Amino acid sequence: MPHLTTVAGPLPVSAVRGPALPHEHLVLDLDRTGDDAAVLDAGRHLDTVTSELAALRAEFGLSLVIELTCRGMGRDPRALARISAESGVAVVASTGWYYEPFHPDEIGGTPVEQLTATLVQEIAVGLDSTGIRPGVLGEIGSHGERPSEPESRALLASAHAAVATGLSVATHAQLGRGGLAQLELLTGTGLAPHRICLGHQDLLDDPAVHRELAARGAYVAFDTVGKESYQSDDTRLRLLLALLEAGHGDRVLLSCDISRHGYLESEGGQGYGHLFRSFLPKARAAGVDDELIDLMTRRNPLRFLTGADTDDDAPATNANTDTDTESDTEEI
């Protein structure tokens, strides 16, 4: 039986009976301007985040959050452990490096081999001297159609570390761009495509790219659901239905990417529950059945993390269907 590595230790996949959110942030700090917007602070927001997750566990059976705040993003593994314990929702922590504007000094001109060793060490012994081990590499970032040179080194190091440790890699593709280049770079190391998730593809209005990524075996993340200032949910739904109609339901991951305290429900935002309360009902109304929703929201995240099918996995089924953004330095 495959196991996940969570902030509370190993967890058998059989224990995850409800949906997962595969790309979220529970604690982070990306403030570079002093306006405090791109922050989820362990001191100020931890109780609110915990309450939101606990409510989703009670209402929708939320069982797992993959938390992609990595090195240089203000991660706090002890806070993640507390959120998980108090909410009753399993949390998988991450390691790696975000895209270049947020690279810490340690990236510099450091060779890929040394960066790889840093990641492998964290995976083996835990994050920031806590003993809390990461269960995924992410969100490993790039911006533009091709990664910059430092971003390429970070991606390559993540891929080599994934091959060495058996973890999977989740990426940040700025505004959905560059996913094909990321996939090419990552798989060139020998990392299998089904251990890769290309991020933010719901911000790229290009169904052909989505089909190609899925056909190559990678996971396609529609992971900014509810961020209407970047993309409308109506467009996201259209893109999702097109990918499902092409037969790629087994390669879809859905999440909300809560990355600012203003997105929390307590501050009038859409919250972590927007996927369940708003987007999935629209998908059901468009003909997406519960079996396919379970595939996208539970079985796919587990298969992405472990590389193995769940015991009750079933073949993907197609949906029965009839049918300028914010500054990209702010996209998380």
Secondary-structure map with pairings?
Layout: E1 3-6, E2 9-12, E3 20-24, E4 28-29, E5 39-40, H1 46-60, E6 64-67, H2 77-87, E7 90-92, E8 94-95, H3 112-125, E9 136-142, H4 149-165, E10 169-173, H5 179-187, E11 196-198, H6 207-215, E12 219-222, H7 233-245, E13 252-254, H8 274-285, H9 290-306
Parallel strand pairs: 3-6, 6-7, 8-9, 9-10, 10-11, 11-12, 12-13
Antiparallel strand pairs: 1-2, 4-5
Q: What is the overall silhouette?
A: globular
CATH architectural type: Alpha-Beta Barrel
CATH domain topology: TIM Barrel
How much of the sequence lies in strands comes to 5-15%
Largest sheet: 6 strands, parallel
* CATH classification class: Alpha Beta
Strand order of the largest sheet: 8-9-10-11-12-13
Distance between the termini: 33 Å
Number of domains: 1
Tell me the number of helical segments per DSSP (H or I, 4 or more residues long): 9
* Annotated CATH homologous superfamily: Metal-dependent hydrolases
| Strand segment tally | 13
Kindly name the structural category: alpha/beta
Mean pLDDT: 93
Order of helices and strands: EEEEEHEHEEHEHEHEHEHEHH
Spans where pLDDT lies below 50 across 5 or more residues: 313-329
Helix content: 25-40%
**What's the alpha carbon Rg, rounded to whole Å?**
18 Å
